[in-house]
């Protein structure tokens, strides 16, 4: 259950602990203060007392948790949380949609076909960023792990099917409706149709688990890439973050990061090292790219 909460709120284990402590301390403080206030008045502990107590608690609770969240370092989380609750019951405005500069946030759609560890890192990276938001997760597989990640983070997802993607409108109206500015491919296995590329010129980024232009092209994905790197006797591999054009793994390189290939490496051990590089760099490179790219 704690794991689910952690995923739902998109927080680290330490942050989850601090949040739970804030709830507990804030809750006790609310009860204590509520009673103290009621004791000031000479009321019988009957239904009126209970009614006033409930109203008082409802008003005090947000204040208490916000107060406690400050020393706990969780103010931002609770500020949003309380705003969300408030907007759900119609007593607060929806959380601010504009960034600090008053501009509309830059909106990202993540396309992924697999378990989505990169998508998870990207979502986590931008979770409190008012200027850049992940607004949509798109997958071509209905059982892809990335869909659970999106659901846990409260991000809408879309499962696409081949015909419409390649032969019809390419889901472009759907992307437009969600005001998507940039498309991020994080392990998306279908080729991107021309229609999408021309709708998002220079705005589709991909991550490839090798140092392009080596070990790219059709069929070069997942373990196939790492097996090819090992078979070629390479002493280093890495990741390439690049723009997407009409050819597989071909567009302009935005950044590359390297790691060694060690003696005794298997495709699995190399994949793990590469994933580490991806998780460490992809979200930041996306941030740099999209922030400078509009
Ligand atoms: C990553 O290795 C990425 O480079 C490649 O697909 C993999 C996706 O992994 N394009 P995950 O689903 O994000 O874990």
Provide an overview of this structure:
Helix 6 links the parallel strand 2 (132-139) and strand 3 (157-159). The protein has 294 residues and is α/β, with parallel strands linked by helices. It contains eleven helices and seven strands. A seven-stranded mixed beta sheet has the order 3-2-1-4-5-6-7, with helices on one face. It has helices at residues 2-9, 13-39, 47-69, 75-88, 117-126, 145-153, 162-167, 172-177, 194-199, 223-231, 267-292; strands at 106-111, 132-139, 157-159, 182-185, 204-208, 236-243, 253-260. Helix 2 crosses helix 3 (47-69) and helix 5 runs parallel beside helix 11 (267-292). The mean pLDDT is 91. Bound molecules: 5-O-phosphono-beta-D-ribofuranosylamine.
Outline:
This protein has eleven helices and seven strands. It is of the alpha/beta class and 294 residues long. Helix 6 (145-153) links the parallel strand 2 (132-139) and strand 3.
């Amino acid at each position: 259950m704690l794991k689910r909460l952690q995923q739902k709120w998109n927080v680290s284990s330490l942050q989850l602990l601090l949040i739970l402590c804030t709830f507990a301390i804030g809750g006790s403080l609310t009860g204590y203060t509520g009673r103290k206030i009621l004791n000031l008045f000479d009321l019988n502990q009957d239904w009126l007392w209970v009614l006033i107590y409930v109203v008082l608690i409802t008003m005090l609770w947000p204040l208490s948790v916000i107060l406690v969240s400050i020393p706990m370092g969780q103010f931002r989380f609770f500020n949003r949380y309380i705003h969300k609750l408030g907007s759900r019951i119609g007593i607060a405005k929806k959380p601010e949609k504009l960034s600090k500069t008053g501009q509309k946030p830059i909106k990202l759609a993540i396309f992924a076909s697999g378990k989505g560890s990169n998508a998870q890192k990207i979502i986590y990276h931008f979770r409190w960023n008012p200027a850049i938001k992940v607004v949509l997760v798109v997958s071509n597989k209905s059982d892809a792990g990335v869909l659970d990640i999106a659901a846990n983070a409260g991000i809408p997802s879309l499962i696409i099917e081949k015909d419409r993607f390649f032969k019809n409108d390419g889901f472009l109206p759907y992307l437009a409706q969600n005001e998507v500015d940039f498309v991020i491919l994080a392990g998306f296995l279908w080729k991107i149709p021309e229609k999408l590329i021309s709708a998002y010129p220079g705005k589709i980024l991909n991550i490839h688990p090798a140092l392009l232009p080596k070990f790219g092209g059709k069929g070069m994905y997942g373990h196939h890439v790492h097996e090819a790197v090992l078979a070629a006797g390479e002493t280093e591999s890495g990741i390439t973050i690049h723009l997407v054009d009409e050819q597989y793994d071909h567009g302009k390189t935005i950044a590359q990061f390297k790691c060694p290939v060690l003696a005794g490496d298997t495709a699995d051990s190399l994949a793990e090292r590469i994933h580490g590089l991806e998780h460490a760099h992809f979200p930041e490179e996306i941030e740099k790219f999209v922030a400078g790219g509009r």
